[in-house]
Backbone:
């Protein structure tokens, strides 16, 4: 409680963001992007063309897993305590020896050029301005070196898909180290591409058009494969759709110094090699030999897998079902979080899939997560307003989280516990 004459605590990010919006509103200004998650998604749907929105927003099968993720967060209820004097809050989180300002990281999202021309560069700059880590995607639209340069010394991790071309996989790890990545995130749930009706109905896979291949097209090992790669068959009288595909491939080729035939070969080699269905636990020992960075396994849903990760000497876990994009009818990530946390012991556990609001962040931390990964919402912000849109989405989530802590009577993010839940 403040004493007479004492200095009031500085407003946290919640009150600061809230005040900014209301003061701007006096002059008739509105936020760049909608604050409510449903309106944010709907605004992005109106802005994007159908294939782009389908890829960013869609899920596997009947999208029951996507609904399960949202339903899992909706089912968990918070219970505040009163008169706790939480006038100021500490939102910081420590992961692998680094301290970040809030327990929010930007998830690795592929093919961000579908949302905005500046793609990963815009996201990287927004993340750097806020101090939150950005996890570079293997399926990025801009090479990791350029995004790292745009971010300066701001924190970044790298997400790895382990393909059948192991020299390329190993090269990605080396490049991530050279770019200053603070961790390697190995995605385990995409050894095969899930059945995604929205994309299938449109016959749209962006990689075949040269999109989302920046890490590969700038990799010396991947580029060395292009001379001998088989070219996909083409019609002697190409349709307008094939002509548009050729134009897209040609544009990406010019950007990365490759000919149209090389780009066709690149698309063919990528689709033939980017997944590895035979990946097994024993393979992790090779990854450990390639890097001294912390290795975080993304896609863990079963406690036995968490225990095996501990036994194999992994450094962290991300509870995830890939945002509902891989298996229709999968369990919601938040539903299994407590069991995975228990099985993981001292390993830090993060979570993604279904995080939309600051109160979602609070629920996840109360259930044992160290931090969350925010995905689709920042992509929608990117679509609507580029770098500034990404920054606003992240600020809004962090602001609501800060206010939620204060209203729960919690002084620090690390103090959230199961007793704050019904």
Residues:
């Amino acid at each position: 409680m403040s004493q007479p004459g004492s200095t009031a605590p500085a407003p946290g990010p919640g009150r600061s963001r809230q005040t900014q919006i209301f003061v701007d509103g006096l002059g008739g200004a509105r936020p760049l992007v909608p604050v409510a998650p449903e309106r944010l998604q709907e605004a992005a749907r109106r802005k994007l063309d159908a294939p782009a929105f389908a890829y960013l927003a869609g899920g596997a099968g009947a999208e029951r897993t996507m609904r399960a993720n949202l339903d899992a967060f909706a089912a968990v209820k918070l219970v505040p305590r009163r008169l706790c004097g939480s006038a100021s809050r500490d939102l910081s989180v420590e992961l692998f020896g680094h301290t970040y300002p809030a327990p929010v990281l930007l998830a690795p999202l592929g093919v961000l050029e579908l949302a905005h021309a500046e793609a990963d560069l815009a996201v990287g700059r927004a993340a750097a301005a806020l101090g939150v880590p950005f996890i570079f995607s293997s399926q990025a639209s801009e090479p990791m070196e350029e995004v790292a340069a745009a971010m300066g010394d701001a924190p970044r991790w790298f997400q790895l898909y382990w393909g059948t071309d192991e020299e390329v996989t190993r090269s990605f790890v080396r490049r991530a180290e050279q770019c200053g990545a603070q961790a390697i995130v190995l995605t385990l749930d995409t050894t095969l591409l899930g059945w995604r009706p929205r994309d299938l109905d449109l016959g749209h896979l962006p990689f075949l058009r040269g999109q989302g291949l920046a890490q590969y097209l700038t990799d010396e090992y991947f580029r060395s494969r292009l001379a001998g790669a088989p070219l996909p068959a083409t019609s002697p009288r190409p349709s307008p759709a094939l002509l548009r595909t050729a134009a897209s491939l040609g544009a990406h080729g010019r950007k990365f110094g490759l000919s149209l035939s090389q780009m066709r070969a690149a698309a063919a080699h990528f689709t033939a090699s980017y997944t590895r269905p035979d990946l097994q636990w024993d393979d992790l020992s090779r990854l450990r030999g390639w890097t001294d960075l912390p290795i975080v396994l993304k896609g863990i849903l079963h406690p036995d897998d968490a225990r095996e990760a501990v036994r194999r000497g992994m450094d962290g876990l991300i509870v995830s079902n890939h945002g509902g994009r891989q298996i229709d009818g999968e369990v919601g990530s938040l539903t299994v979080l407590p069991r995975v946390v228990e099985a993981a012991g001292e390993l830090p556990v993060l979570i993604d899939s279904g995080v939309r609001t600051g109160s979602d962040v609070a629920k996840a931390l109360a259930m044992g997560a160290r931090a969350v990964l925010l995905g689709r919402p920042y992509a929608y912000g990117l679509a609507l307003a580029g770098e500034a849109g990404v920054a606003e989405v992240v600020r809004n989530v962090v602001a609501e989280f800060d206010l939620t802590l204060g209203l729960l009577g919690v002084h620090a993010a690390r103090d959230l516990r199961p007793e704050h839940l019904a």
Observations:
- The mean pLDDT is 95.
- The first strand starts at residue 93 and ends at 95.
